[in-house]
Design goal:
Layout: H1 43-82, H2 89-137, H3 143-172
Length: about 180
């Protein structure tokens, strides 16, 4: 098995990921998928991805709960109130569309922020892969250890970013800690 790590964090999977999985950061928000290379991530890589998964789950569960339950519930209550026999079809449709604005806005904010996080992690891990490739060409004996160190540092940096990203999202959604 190749020791390269062509993967980014599959944050919302609750299991270690192979490099064949897709990045899906929230259930039902599937517009922002990134295909990951067809190589398997080595065991150290799986452990690192699992570490990021657990940290993301911890930090984003209040945000996910807010979007999935609070905003969805408010949307359905609002939309229900739109259905009045005295309204025209167009009025009902406009009313329901207006009810969906907070949910749609929230999904866009989540998608944008998670896409940025994804891209940062991907670039960081690609740097590790590039360094490993160069070290292999130079036949450096510590190439694999350097790769593992680089991936470990990238993962730690990603985990350190999560609380800040979660706080930013909470602020966007007016959630308190």
């Amino acid at each position: 098995m190749s020791p390269t790590f062509n993967a980014i964090c599959a944050i919302w999977y609750r299991r270690p990921c192979s490099a064949k999985c897709l990045f899906e950061f929230f259930p039902k928000i599937h517009k922002n998928k990134i295909k990951i290379e067809d190589e398997e991530v080595g065991e150290p890589g799986k452990q690192k991805l699992h570490q990021v998964n657990l940290a993301a789950e911890e930090h984003f569960s209040p945000v996910q709960d807010h979007v999935k339950f609070t905003l969805q519930q408010a949307y359905f209550k609002c939309a229900y109130e739109c259905f009045d026999r005295e309204r025209s079809y167009d009025e009902i449709s406009d009313c329901v569309e207006n009810c969906s604005v907070p949910v749609v806005r929230s999904q866009h904010i989540l998608e944008d922020e998670m896409a940025k996080f994804q891209e940062t992690m991907k670039r960081s891990l690609m740097v590790c892969q590039d360094k490993f490739g160069a070290a292999k060409l130079q036949r450096k004996p510590d190439a694999l250890n350097d790769l593992e160190t680089c991936v470990d540092q990238s993962t730690q940096d990603g985990v350190k970013m999560l609380p800040h990203l979660a706080a930013k999202l909470k602020t966007s959604f007016f959630l308190s800690d």
